[in-house]
Amino acid sequence: MTASRADAASLTPGPTSAPPVLPGMRQADRLLPGIAPEAEAMPGAVYSPFADRIASHPGPLFPLHVGDTWRDPFVGARSEDIASADHKRLHAYADTRGLPELIEAIREKLEDRNGLQHSSDEILVTAGATGGLSALAGALLSPGDEMLILAPFWPLIRGIAQSFRAKPVEVPFFDRVDSEASAEAAVEACVTPRSRVLYVSTPSNPTGRIIPEAWLKALATLARRHNLWIFADEVYEDYHYLGGSEAHASIARYAPERTISVYSFSKSYAMAGQRVGYLAGPAKAIENARKLGTHLYYHPPVVGQRTALAALREGGDWLAEAHRQDREVGLKVAEILGESSPQGGTFLFVDVRDRLDSRGMDGLLEDCFDQGVLVAPGGSCGAAYAGWIRMSYTAAPAAEVLDATGRLASVLGR
């Protein structure tokens, strides 16, 4: 049978629209297919605009812009401590759910330290908390869905939502609410029919604040009322400074059927480069996050998983000492800058709007850089916080951090 002329015409590709011409685009790039607008909209350098100039800085440099720690893991939990002679198939592919013995150790830890009951099929070992949250976003968010994010927030969570074509909705929170009722009202005001996820982080990166237990209960009730998933970012769970049960509260206790908790070994045990974290939550959510993780990174590094297992088994004393030291440094840094003492985490979030001149934030960051101090612009933690800066007080040894804080204080006139 011969196709009609009309049929043939319908099968002929028509003209396609040219990719948009963006400012600064090279001529060669204009001939290529377009870049996804969601990727174009994402910032490339979220922590500092001076990455390309760091190596050429003439004096001492204090990298307080990234939330890392200056420490190495304890002996026994370092990469060089994991020998292939002791672990068969150390360099081969492994179970995409995680090493079985690590999953069992995590299950016991969640029960003993977090008061959470999870079976092994409700736990997924991930390529850091970042990989875990990415797998979750891919599994539970569809294009156009909204993720409600308590702001200011960890800078990468906004881009993770955008990566899966979801809309990040910034909920001004930590500096705006002062009660259970106002906390609930702040989130309620942002809920729409497209809302699907509520992202909660406590202790907070970047504010250092801990969300009180009563507020968490209220947010859990709100999530249940609007049928939202809850992403509970517990990355700084081991660095809380209030003491007592208030510091240990997790929103997963109040809405376990819809909460996926996200944990990491990066902060607790100084293993950021090992790329190991884990998820714990309803089996259906974990099952589908595993699918996404398999396609994103397959599984976390096996050596990293072995060091994580060593940390859970042997790292208690090391963790207690790191906690003591970081709390002490955080108190001193806050005092120098005239800020409230951090309740947890490893950051201070500082309002510098009174120090911005006609150059804006770029000028202030340049002044800090001239003093050898790198800090992160607050706008990376939320659009409403462009006049703030974030600094980590664990990124260098205490003496260096205090030196950097004095330099920062001189820039800020404090």
Features:
single chain; 414 residues; alpha/beta; Aspartate Aminotransferase, domain 1; Aspartate Aminotransferase, domain 2; 3-stranded antiparallel beta sheet; 12 strands; globular
Task: Describe the 3D structure.
- It is a single chain.
- The protein has 414 residues and is an alpha/beta fold.
- The protein is built from 14 helices and 12 strands.
- The strands form 3 sheets. Strands 2-8-7-6-5-3-4 form a 7-stranded mixed beta sheet, sandwiched between helices. Strands 9-12-11 form a 3-stranded antiparallel beta sheet, with no helix packed on it.
- It is globular and about 55 Å long.
Helix content: 25-40%
Shape: globular
Q: Give the SSE string.
A: HHEHEHEHEHEHEHEHEHHHEHEEEH
Number of domains: 2
Low-confidence stretches: 1-16
What kind of sheet is the major sheet?
A: 7 strands, mixed
CATH-wise, what's the superfamily of the largest domain? Type I PLP-dependent aspartate aminotransferase-like (Major domain)
* Average pLDDT taken over every residue: 90
Give the radius of gyration.
23 Å
CATH class of the largest domain: Alpha Beta
> What percent strand?
5-15%
* CATH domain fold name of the largest domain: Aspartate Aminotransferase, domain 2
In CATH, the architecture of the largest domain is: 3-Layer(aba) Sandwich
Class derived from helix and strand content: alpha/beta
Question: What distance separates the N and C termini?
Answer: 85 Å
